[in-house]
Amino acid sequence: MKKKALLIGCNYPGTNAELNGCVNDVRRMYKCLTEQFKFVDKDITIMVDTDKRYIQPTGVNIKKVLARLIEEVQPGDVLFLHYSGHGTQVPCERTDEEDDDFDEAIVPCDLNLLTVNMNLIDNEKEQITGTRTRDVFSGNTKDFSFNLLSIKYSGQKDEEEEKEKCLPTSFKSKSMSVDTLTELLSQKIGHEVKPGLIRTSLFELFGDDASSSVKVFLDLVNVKLSSNKVGQGSGSLKVEFVSTKIDGVNPELRVPSIGISPLGQAGKKTVPDDTGVLVSGCMSNETSADANLTGDKSQAFGALSNGILTVLQQRKGSISNKELVMEVRKLLQKQGFAQHPCLYCSDEDLNRPFICEY
């Protein structure tokens, strides 16, 4: 059995969406995998956007590494993916009717969004959910903004126990708002990007390297434009604008909506359904926190990541997926966080060890 991992940390340095703890999360997770789970260094790929010595976590690079790992996997192998960075929700851009749905996505360092249709476990059962709340912390905070994964140290007793109850001196949300996303895309593309044209702008920026859902959407628009079925009412796309973008694209970059793999490639899906376990930082209507207890950026962390690492360190032995998420929830509540980590997996994986046996 081989154990391989991809660890992704996006701090978005120098932008108004900058986070502090995501790269720290990667460093700590690497240590956990090598020391506790006995992963070998050469089988761990690290992608961070604060150090050019590592592969940069762009949308294309993430897809390439995932594709390679999936291509190489053999029955019985373990693949572990850790992502710490912004998540976002992209408003649907229906061409035929109003729709209040959103596509969930993670935000690589170059903004080439990887949407939920690329999720290799999108058919897994929702085993642990939580109460619906939009609060992030249960106390006063400052330096507020949003992020996707986070947690904190817990200790033994007395002094350490009191320490773990302290709220961070600052925190950021790991949920990138649509306004922030369109602002960053506008800066990158050189003209204003409105919420209703996010996918079109992503295709303009990244072409065939864009997420499969972006290409499928543009393909659908192209079909409807050709059939003169695109409406002009409220909520529909501007025909002239979209037509211009599509007409200016190399026909070879236009990908048909049939046969798109989760990695944005034409062809068959190489990984079967019901094959993975997902631990998410919060419910879809909540946000995860990028937190700081001391004000020192080198000590910042993601609430979920820190929680998982803390529980694993305390347990000092195998722990089931269900037990891990429940223990992390208790820890986050004790620390004052209001986010509720969730677990998605098959019934068979519910009580299996997290990652693998030690």
UniProtKB/TrEMBL annotation:
It comes from the Eukaryota. InterPro entries: Caspase-like_dom_sf (IPR029030), Metacaspase (IPR050452), Pept_C14_caspase (IPR011600). Residues 2-346 form the Peptidase C14 caspase domain. Belongs to the peptidase C14B family. This is Peptidase C14 caspase domain-containing protein. It comes from Riccia fluitans.
